[in-house]
TrEMBL record:
Domain Carboxylesterase type B: 26-533
PROSITE patterns (UniProt xref): CARBOXYLESTERASE_B_1
EC number: 3.1.1.-
Domain of life from the UniProt record: Eukaryota
Signal peptide range: 1-21
Descriptive protein name: Carboxylic ester hydrolase
CDD domains reported for this sequence: Esterase_lipase
Any one GO molecular function term: carboxylic ester hydrolase activity
Family: Belongs to the type-B carboxylesterase/lipase family.
Keyword Transmembrane appears in the UniProt entry: no
Top EC group: hydrolase
Family annotation (Pfam families): COesterase
Length: 566
């Protein structure tokens, strides 16, 4: 069936003919069974086929909770791929009637959504797979819709993976080795590799990209041997494996604490596992609030672990920094980016309520180690001194308020994202032959991710994720293509993606050079101000990295130094 068939259907709807999109159900035959989908429309009214809710693994419920994903069973009859799912999560973007952060979703959530312009297995369309963000704690694939990107003739895929304690709990041994959410991602990518041809996709032309924890996840797939051969290039927007919030600290202690919170004995790992499998999933996820003493901070108390130390089936063999230094990453093109005001996640939430700024000002040494994710990576005797040094550097003697808010945003962006993005990109470029590109997104469109937490449409900067919303239609944000500048900026970004997907290189209307191979050379970065204003810059450093590198956080360089000394 060809695209023209869908066009005829849309015309028939417009002219009130007998056939309707509701009645038309495209079908695909895969090795697991027949799948029935529907028809969608892009922002420019280009029709496409959609298949929403295809299982890529068995439901991880009952005895499969905390276990590695297993292949789904074949089905008889027709699988109706017409429903979107959400993995169970503690979500600070949504609140319940008591104004508490909401627990919602289901354990049965391991589904993939596919959008395509052809159902011919000879079409060989380029494939773009999106990995959603959310600090490994919240989010879902379906929040990032296809309506913008499907104006191009590609196959677009998004999916869910287990989150929070259900996806990233670890006893730091073989009983609950951890990284289950990352193993879900690998399983999903393998499903795409093995099945996308039935949806018109080219299994040898898969590009992955993600935002925030999704960007870090994309970077992860360069490290793990399990993802070798599953993709050809990757985009990491506002996240990488060296960011301070990616690797979880003290995972065993956190697991024991969670077990106690839900009434489980903590005698040994097996006892914990058996008991946690018997508890309601909602009770386990609700316990997340006990790990976040200030609002939802630290925003990523559960994350990736170096399971190579204890797992029979590890996916992260060593610390990412050490693996980078050793050159143990896939030699594939990588594009890494950040926005001008990254720190608006989480600082946009503080903008919404002056009391939050007062609390940060008066309890700085107590709150900031959690917000900046160093409470568990600094010697506790140094914590107050480090916290004060950070405040002095960014705020001087000034209070935290609306007048100094931009300094707070810069501080959070530098620490939580930009400084470590620079470190990762430099190292990555120095150990592979393929090109590594970097861009700085400086365009504030009609809409922004900051709307979600600031509860305001005021322009408070180019937020974390503001480039993503010009590529994908984020359901929870108002229309991101409200004027010609937005649309042209969207076209610029899509052209960038398409050039990498099709050519494995950058081909856009701007001079853009890859990072140099010597990690000490100037940092080559494209600053994108507007669709017709993108400038190649050479920077000595990013995100005040020289300042942040002074601190003895047990991260990255300091982890490697510590191990070498031992």
């Amino acid at each position: 069936m060809k695209l023209t068939t869908i066009s005829i259907l849309i015309l028939s709807i417009c002219y009130n003919l007998d056939t309707s999109a509701e009645e038309f159900r495209p079908r695909v035959t895969t090795p697991l069974g027949v799948i029935e989908g529907g028809v969608g429309l892009s922002v420019n009214l280009n029709p496409y086929f959609k298949f929403e809710g295809i299982p890529y693994a068995k439901p991880p419920v009952g005895n499969l909770r905390f276990e590695e994903p297993e292949d789904p069973e074949p089905w008889k009859g027709i699988w109706k791929a017409n429903s979107l799912t959400t993995c169970m999560q503690y979500d600070h973007f949504e609140k319940d009637v008591q104004n508490n952060y909401r627990v919602h979703g289901d354990e049965d959530c391991l589904y993939v959504n596919v959008y395509t312009h052809s159902l011919s297995d000879k079409a060989n369309l380029d494939v773009l797979v999106f990995i959603h963000g959310g600090a490994f704690m919240f989010g879902r694939g379906a929040s990032y819709g296809p309506e913008i990107i499907m104006d191009r003739k590609i196959v677009f895929v998004n999916f869910n993976y287990r989150l929070g304690p259900l996806g990233f709990l670890s006893t730091e041994d073989e009983v609950i080795p951890g990284n289950i959410g990352l193993k879900d991602q690998i399983k999903a990518l393998k499903w795409v590799k093995n099945n996308i041809q039935y949806f018109g996709g080219n299994p040898d032309s898969i590009t992955i990209f993600g935002l925030s924890a999704g960007g870090a996840s994309v970077h992860f797939h360069y490290f793990t041997p399990e993802s070798k051969g599953l993709f050809k290039a990757g985009f990491s927007q506002s996240g990488c494996m060296l960011n301070s919030w990616v690797l979880a600290e003290n995972s065993k202690e956190k697991t024991e604490k969670l077990a106690a919170l839900v009434g489980c004995p903590t005698d040994d790992s097996k006892t914990i596992l058996d008991c946690l499998k018997s508890k309601p999933a909602r009770q386990i996820v609700q316990a997340v609030k006990e790990y976040q003493p200030f609002l939802y901070n630290p925003f990523s108390p559960f994350g990736a672990v170096v399971d190579g130390k204890w797992s029979k089936n590890p996916v992260l063999l060593d610390h990412p920094y050490k693996l980078l230094k050793q050159g143990k990453v896939q030699d594939l093109p990588w594009i890494i980016s950040y926005t001008s005001h990254e720190g608006l996640y989480p600082a946009a939430d503080f903008y919404a309520d002056d009391q939050h700024l007062i609390d940060i000002d008066t309890k700085w040494n107590e709150i900031m180690p959690f917000v900046l994710h160093y409470n568990e990576t600094i010697d506790q005797k140094l914590k107050d001194e480090v916290s004060q040094t950070i405040r002095d550097h960014y705020l001087g003697n000034n209070p935290v308020n609306k007048e100094t808010y931009n300094s707070l945003v810069q501080l959070m962006g530098d620490r939580l994202f930009i400084a470590d993005i620079e470190k990762a990109a430099r190292l990555h470029a120095s150990v592979i032959k393929s090109d590594v590109y970097s861009y700085h997104f400086n365009y504030r469109g009609s809409s922004s991710f900051s709307e979600l937490t600031s509860k305001s449409k005021n322009n408070i900067g180019v937020c974390h994720g503001d480039d993503t919303i010009l590529l994908l239609k984020v359901k929870e944000i108002s229309d991101s293509l409200q004027n010609d500048d937005d649309k042209k900026m969207s076209e610029f970004l899509i052209n960038m993606f398409m050039s990498v997907m099709q050519k494995r290189s950058i081909d856009i209307k701007a001079k853009w050079e890859p990072l140099l191979k010597n990690a000490q050379d100037p940092y080559q970065i494209l600053k994108i101000n507007k669709h017709d204003d993108a400038i190649l810059l050479s920077k000595k450093s990013l995100g005040n990295s020289e300042f942040w590198n002074r601190f003895p956080f047990q991260e990255n360089d300091n982890i490697l130094t510590q191990k070498d000394e031992l």
